[in-house]
């Protein structure tokens, strides 16, 4: 089969797709990964074959501008201890419209859609696996006649909003911003719009079952096998430091592209300065620029492979990135999650993950990045370090994910999806 993956212009989103794309490739299928041109080198570094589509979008500028334009429509609750199921509970239609407007502007320029449709017309994929931010993948699946699968990177925000807008009544949405946007494009290619355009034939959900998900969506659970890109193990990672080690990771997307409000390194360092721990902070020079002298117990590194670093750690503080979360679960590390606050960003994965680990007793939803204080973070960190139940529950969750289907085990399920699609 020919499998076309379509990803958003973030390494973190690409890295969620790599294990499944690699599993399909090693099963003998032909695999391509389509993304905007600035992702070409990142795709090549994974060993996969890239397909550039559309123009380069200046994300730093555009994401901040989009957030300002859409702020008036941002109706989601802004409480420290919100739950994913509360996403836009007062007006899901307005939130859905705002979110679709944002991703249309940022990740789906007309040029990208037309480029991908043209490529799919030539290459004729059997299956298109697309990032939920990149609807050009859905359009390409429809125009080429391929089966269509969304591959989530976090929680199913769009599925949740569509279910909330529909209510108990079956059938299409009365007010559907995806239809309003994509139906004219599909008609231009001689195709019709239907619900599979919005959410695919199935939705691959690479999260443990204890991470909240909406009802009414055909979710296919897959174990998230963490991938962190090419790396080399530095000697210090194997050293016995004689005290507990804490990892700090603020996420690839905010590191690569400056937008929104993230946990500030200064808050983190103030929280740990007097603790008897070693802190390994994977931060860029830009993220620590302008700070006073680092505490003696903090080691800042540009990058460290989490599959090597986390087994040496007693806790991790992070922003709720999918790869970091999956690695922490795999290696049984208690988590303190601090969601970033770009537009409705926390509702696309970090909040559901924070809710999940807190409900399972394996971590703490420490608070949103714009609300967190050094004193509050320090208290939560000491609680996680000193209460042995957090480590025990993290170990339980690590054992539990071993029963979830791996990407290799999902391959035959996707093959069946393609066969059923052909028989329609």
Number of helices: 18
Low-confidence runs (pLDDT<50, min 5 residues)? 72-77
CA radius of gyration: 21 Å
The residue fraction in helices comes out at 40-55%
Question: In one word, what is the shape?
Answer: globular
Strand sequence of the main sheet, in spatial order? 3-2-1-4-5-6-7
The largest sheet, given as strand count, sense and whether it forms a barrel, is:
7 strands, parallel
Mean pLDDT across the residues is: 91
Chain oligomer state: single chain
Descriptive overview:
By secondary structure, the chain is α/β, with parallel strands linked by helices. 43% of the residues lie in helices and 13% in strands. The chain is built from 18 helices and 13 strands. The strands form two sheets. The chain has a seven-stranded parallel β-sheet with strand order 3-2-1-4-5-6-7, sandwiched between helices. Helix 6 links the parallel strand 4 and strand 5. Helix 4 packs antiparallel against helix 7.
Describe the structure concisely for a colleague:
This protein is an alpha/beta fold.
Main attributes of the structure:
alpha/beta, EryCIII-like_C, 13 strands, six-stranded parallel beta sheet, seven-stranded parallel beta sheet, single chain, globular, UDP_glucos_trans, 424 residues, Glycosyltransferase, Glycosyltransferase_28, glycosyltransferase
Give the SSE layout.
Elements: E1 2-6, H1 11-26, E2 30-35, H2 40-45, E3 50-52, H3 59-70, H4 92-107, H5 110-123, E4 127-130, H6 136-144, E5 147-151, H7 157-166, H8 177-188, H9 195-199, E6 202-205, E7 219-221, E8 244-249, H10 252-256, H11 265-272, E9 277-282, H12 285-288, E10 298-301, H13 306-309, E11 315-318, H14 322-330, E12 335-337, H15 350-359, E13 363-365, H16 374-386, H17 388-400, H18 407-422
Parallel strand pairs: 1-2, 1-4, 2-3, 4-5, 5-6, 6-7, 8-9, 8-11, 9-10, 11-12, 12-13
Helix pairs in contact: 1-18, 3-4, 4-7, 5-6, 11-16
